[in-house]
Structures are given as structure tokens and as C-alpha cells.
Design goal:
mainly alpha, elongated, 335 residues
Length: 335
């Protein structure tokens, strides 16, 4: 009996893992708890647990705004490094899960002349200059219209007495006409030929057409000067150039309202082509009449006038149109 009691007492003091399971439930639970406390005490005495430390190295994203918070690299606040980030101060930063937007992206708004501030400013400036100049040049316009159908004979120079201011006014109208034709040409190209070009923006195409028109007028005036000085003399050449300048200035005035309607009131390109054609035919008929009246009236050469007109008026115009179509074809992006 004493031996059996000693065995039971020994099991209560140091129960083994297999022996604990053989004891009653209450006694086994108490023995397991005693073993856990003894094991934890031994660990603390033999190998003390190292304290948890946080790194003092700053966050790479937080370095960007270190100048806003000088204490960022000095403090090691765990909550700050866990919850603060580079994107926290962004107005669109959200911690929730992002979701895609609803619907489909719309088509970008195409380039339109009416929305271009530079074009609008130029047209407004042209309109103001038109109004002021026409109001102050009534006498000049009336005199030019009266003298247009009168041709001096011999050495009489009554029809070429314009002042330098009047010449500058007509030259300005010619430049405005070049701009108007360039704008109308741009609308024609984008409506009938193509809308994508290798240029950086559409304004460059307008500038290119404007430069081509100025070069066309300059080359045609040079051609007139060379031919007329050789065959007819300088006085008749000057008279013809001034009449041609007046016709081109008048054409610019006639084209201005049509181009404004095309840009701001959606006038169809087809109707604009009809109007441009009528104005161009009228100007060419008057040019044919002035060539006959100045150079061939005394000689009675209608055939010579027709050949002169075709050589110096029709042919350069057709060549210019062909060159511009070829240039536009080169600038088109072909897929």
C-alpha cells in the first residue's frame, strides 16, 4: 500500500505526457497547467526573449515629403508608418477598392475653325479693318469703279494716280483674300478629301495654304512684269497690274461674308463652291476685258487677247490647283 501511494504521489508531482492522459479529467487539467507554467518560467530564466524594435530607416515614399515634416526621420511611430503613405495627401486618394467606371469613352471633339481663338481673332481684326477702310475710302472706290471701264490713250496717265496709302490698302485686302481662300481651302479639303494629316495640328495646314496663295500672287505678278515689259512697255504694265490689284481686292471683299458663313454658320461646301465659281468667273471676265482694253484694243486682236489670257491667267491657275492637290495628297496620312 505504501508503495502504491508513493507512485500516485509521484504522478501528482511530475506527471509525464503519457501519464497525464491516464489521470482523471480534473487532475489531468491541473497537471498540464502546472507543466506549462514551469516551462514558461524556465524559458524566461534560461533565454530571455528579445524586445521588439522598429526600424528607424525612413520610408522611401515618405522621403519625398521629408521637408514638410522635419521630424519624420526622427520618430519611429509604428502607426504612422503603417497607415501614412506617399499618396495620403492626394485629393483623389481613396483606401477602398477601386472599380472601373461605367459607360464607354466618347469620341474626341474634332478641330473646328470656329473654336480656334487665333482664327477668330484674325477674322475679327479683318472685319474691323474692312469696315474702317471702306468707310474712309468711298471716294477712292468710286473713282476706281468709274475709271475701270475707261482706258487712257497715248501717254495719258489719269488712271494710275493712286496714292501710296491706297496701294497699301489694296495690298492688305489681297493678303486678307489669301487668308480667306486658305480657310475655305482647308474646309474643302477636310470635307471632301481627308481629315488626318502628318502635320502637328490643323492650323499648320491653314498657314501652308496661306503661304501658297501669297506665293501664287507674287509669282503671277512677276510673270506679268516680265512679259508685259518685254512686249508692251512699263507704263501699260503698271496700269494693268494696278487694275489687277483692284480686282483681287474686290474679290477679297466679296469672299469675306461667304467664308464667315462657312466657318460660323455651317454653310455647305457645295454652295460655297458655287459662289466661289461665280465670283472667279466674273473676275476673270473683267481681267480678260482689261487685257484687251490695255494691250490689244488698238490692234483689234481678239485672238491675241485670248492667247495672252490663257497663258498668263488660266494656265498658272490650273498649275497652282494641281500643285496644291498634290501637296495635300502628300500630307495625308494613308492607312
Amino acid at each position: 500500500m505504501l508503495q502504491q501511494d508513493s507512485i500516485i504521489t509521484q504522478h501528482h508531482a511530475e506527471p509525464a505526457g503519457s501519464a497525464v492522459s491516464e489521470l482523471p479529467a480534473d487532475t489531468a487539467l491541473d497537471a498540464a497547467y502546472d507543466q506549462f507554467l514551469e516551462l514558461d518560467l524556465n524559458l524566461h530564466h534560461t533565454a530571455p526573449r528579445a524586445e521588439s524594435t522598429w526600424t528607424l530607416m525612413p520610408d522611401s515614399f515618405a522621403l519625398y515629403r521629408a521637408h514638410l515634416d522635419s521630424a519624420l526621420t526622427e520618430t519611429a511611430d509604428v502607426h504612422r508608418y503603417l497607415h501614412d503613405s506617399f499618396f495620403e495627401r492626394d485629393s483623389v486618394y481613396r483606401t477602398e477598392v477601386s472599380s472601373p467606371g461605367y459607360g464607354a469613352a466618347g469620341d474626341p471633339v474634332p478641330y473646328m475653325l470656329r473654336s480656334d481663338n487665333m482664327i477668330t481673332l484674325l477674322l475679327l481684326l479683318c472685319f474691323v479693318v474692312f469696315s474702317v477702310s471702306l468707310a474712309r475710302s468711298k471716294h477712292f472706290i468710286t473713282r476706281q469703279l468709274k475709271n475701270f471701264f475707261y482706258t487712257s490713250h497715248g501717254d495719258d496717265d489719269e488712271t494710275i494716280g493712286e496714292t501710296s496709302g491706297e496701294l497699301r490698302f489694296q495690298l492688305f485686302l489681297v493678303f486678307v483674300g489669301c487668308l480667306l481662300i486658305a480657310l475655305a481651302g482647308y474646309l474643302f479639303v477636310t470635307d471632301r478629301i481627308a481629315q488626318t494629316f502628318v502635320l502637328a495640328n490643323d492650323f499648320q495646314l491653314v498657314a501652308l495654304l496661306f503661304g501658297a496663295m501669297v506665293a501664287y500672287h507674287g509669282a503671277k505678278s512677276l510673270l506679268y512684269t516680265v512679259v508685259n515689259n518685254v512686249f508692251f512697255g512699263s507704263k501699260k504694265n503698271i496700269q494693268y497690274l494696278k487694275d489687277s490689284l483692284f480686282l483681287n481686292a474686290t474679290m477679297s471683299v466679296l469672299l469675306f461674308p461667304v467664308v464667315m458663313l462657312m466657318i460660323y454658320f455651317d454653310l455647305s461646301v457645295q454652295n460655297a463652291i458655287y459662289f466661289f465659281g461665280i465670283v472667279l468667273i466674273m473676275v476673270k471676265i473683267l481681267t480678260f476685258y482689261k487685257a484687251w482694253a490695255i494691250f490689244f484694243r488698238q490692234k483689234g486682236g481678239v485672238l491675241q487677247t485670248f492667247l495672252y489670257f490663257c497663258t498668263l491667267e488660266v494656265t498658272p491657275l490650273l498649275v497652282f490647283c494641281g500643285v496644291m492637290l498634290a501637296l495635300v495628297d502628300v500630307l495625308i496620312i494613308k492607312f
